[in-house]
Design goal:
By secondary structure, the protein is of the alpha/beta class. The protein folds into 3 domains: 8-134 and 271-311, 3-Layer(aba) Sandwich (D-Maltodextrin-Binding Protein, domain 2), CATH 3.40.190.10; 135-268 and 328-347, Periplasmic binding protein-like II (D-Maltodextrin-Binding Protein, domain 2, 3-Layer(aba) Sandwich), CATH 3.40.190; 353-536, Rossmann fold, CATH 3.40.50.410. It is 41% helix and 18% strand.
Length: 537
């Protein structure tokens, strides 16, 4: 297995990332505008606190935020208050493996423990798994597209979905498997469904399915580190036909979608509430009491009606919107190496490549420690760049510093050349001039050119530490975006990073106007903000 590149998460899974880097990432704060599945933390964090009676510190899948009303009722019934910290599956597994979770949490509550059990260093750290509810991976397809394809939603197979995508009659969005619980499950679903594997997925199965997987992921036109942002982006992108996610998430997306659970099998999340072996006996008892309550008929009915997940207790009917016909459970990878190789293949060869313009404030106010932080963050980021990725660094002050703009493409045959060149360019950045935010964004769009037939995930990242002082004002950029860009260019999102003394309202407006998302490096690390954006590229 070749060394994985493309995300810090993969390197951590392969044992090549220091725990210090992981802790820096998990301290990342975002703007909180989505319900993301990514690596950021959320909820009432108990990081660094000791166990307190009645408070169950839980490392949880972020989509479980919708369980808040159910957990409030559980608190009244059991006296157990859940204090969640949200994480993606792969980040959570690494926290458990590193021992970080033993110090900070009493239990984990992920969408599935399947990947966790593949690793001996994490499997022995958990005990008392109790499934609480289920939700299969499904396709939410626009009804008009279902009609055009002539599909009977109850009978659609993986082969039919593959043919529709390969013939360019179906496009879709999916969250990033390396940062999202739902994306990881979707990747396993697709690989298992298209491989035809009848038992645990093997390397041979994945290799046999690779041509079909490449055709399938060529149809992915929307990516995200967050299910919430993905749904919002989907509502803006009428040319995207479908979303792949957990059934419960898809049923919560605004607008009508036809639910398709492939007739030949699905991968299902079972959300097991699981104690950590190192937890105190009182905490394990609290987890058992909570799990027992959540599996009572009344709580199961509340869960399915509130969250649109499926009950696990016999005799409790699923919510009215949930189909009751059964599906075979598709096989999960049989070993950690298979799962890791699948993730690495998705990131570096199966999915569309990334194309990003980094619009970097190097005005006079960025001098000293701020510029050092930017350089360090960019150098660290090179470890995340994927095969085939096109990276443009566009520093600006009073205007774009044209002589310093460089574009590099990561060649799969020799990635080191491009990565070294990006590090060199980052090291040469210098601070001078004013702050021309909007004129620089206009130039970034111009550099991207015509993206009508773009086969890459294209985006712009804006990092600034201050307010606009030079060049075009905000109103001119708004007019430029509305009148000077083609429809395809208007779909290119800008992901601004709040840093230093930058204007939150102004940057949030840029994100909203362009369909991007604001990331906050004032409450976390700058390298962490750049890393979190990777799920959206």
């Amino acid at each position: 297995m070749r060394p994985a590149r493309g995300t810090r998460s993969v390197r951590a899974l392969l044992g090549t990332t220091a725990v210090a880097v992981l802790i820096a990432l998990t301290g990342t704060a975002c703007d909180g505008s989505g319900d993301g599945d990514g690596d950021g933390s959320g909820g009432e964090s108990t990081r660094g606190q000791e166990y307190r009676p009645g408070i169950l510190r839980v490392l949880a899948s972020s989509e479980l935020a919708d369980m808040a009303p159910v957990l409030e009722e559980a608190r009244k019934a059991t006296g157990v208050t859940v204090s969640p910290t949200y994480a993606g599956t792969l980040d959570a597994v690494e926290r458990i493996a590193s021992g970080e979770a033993d110090r900070q949490f009493d239990a984990v509550w992920l969408s599935s423990n399947d990947y966790l059990r593949l690793r001996p260093d994490t499997a022995r750290k958990i005990t008392g798994e109790t499934p609480i509810m289920t939700s299969p991976v499904a396709f939410g397809v626009r009804p008009a597209v279902v009609g055009a394809l002539g599909w009977d939603p109850k009978k659609v197979t993986w082969a039919q979905i593959h043919r529709a995508v390969a013939s360019k009659r179906l496009t879709y969005g999916m969250t990033d498997p390396l940062r999202s619980n739902s994306g990881f499950s979707a990747l396993v679903s697709v690989a298992s469904g298209l491989s035809g594997a009848q038992s645990a997925l093997t390397d041979r199965d994945v290799r046999a399915a690779t041509p079909k997987l490449k055709e399938f992921f060529a149809g992915q036109t929307l990516t995200s580190g967050s299910s919430g942002w993905l749904a919002t982006a989907f509502s803006r992108r009428s040319e995207v036909d479908a979303l792949v996610n957990y059934e419960s998430v898809l049923l919560s997306v605004p607008g009508e979608l036809t639910m398709i659970r492939p007739a030949d099998g699905v991968v299902t999340a079972d959300y097991p509430l699981t104690s950590l072996t190192a937890a105190r006996p009182e905490a394990k008892d609290a987890a058992r009491r909570l799990a027992a309550h959540l599996r009572t008929p009344d709580a199961q009915r509340r869960i399915t009606d509130t969250t649109l997940r499926r009950p696990v207790v016999p005799g409790v009917a699923p919510a009215a919107r949930l189909a009751t016909d059964q599906r075979r459970e598709l096989p999960f990878p049989g070993s950690r190496s298979v799962a890791d190789e699948l993730l690495d293949a998705y990131d570096n060869s199966l999915r569309r490549p990334s194309r990003t313009v980094y619009v970097l404030d190097t005005s006079g106010s960025m001098g000293g420690e701020r510029l050092d932080r930017l350089k360090s963050a960019l150098v660290q980021l090179t470890g995340d760049f994927r095969d085939r990725e096109e990276v443009t660094l566009m520093p600006f002050g009073s205007s774009v510093k044209s002589g310093e703009v460089r574009t590099h493409t990561v060649d799969p045959a020799s990635p080191k050349a491009a990565l070294d060149a990006i590090r060199t360019d980052a090291g040469r950045l210098s601070a001078s001039g004013g702050t021309a935010i909007y004129s620089s964004l206009e130039e970034a769009y111009a550099r991207l050119g015509d993206v009508t037939s773009d086969t890459a995930f294209t985006s712009i990242v804006l990092m600034t530490d201050g307010a606009n002082t030079d060049g075009d004002p905000a109103s001119a950029f708004d007019a430029f975006h509305a009148r000077s860009l083609t429809p395809a260019q208007r779909r290119v999102p800008v992901f601004p990073i709040l840093f230093g003394d930058s204007d939150r309202a102004a940057l949030d407006h840029i994100a909203q106007l362009t369909g991007g998302r604001l990331f906050d490096a004032t409450r976390g690390s700058l390298d962490g903000a750049f890393e979190e954006i990777r799920g959206y590229q």
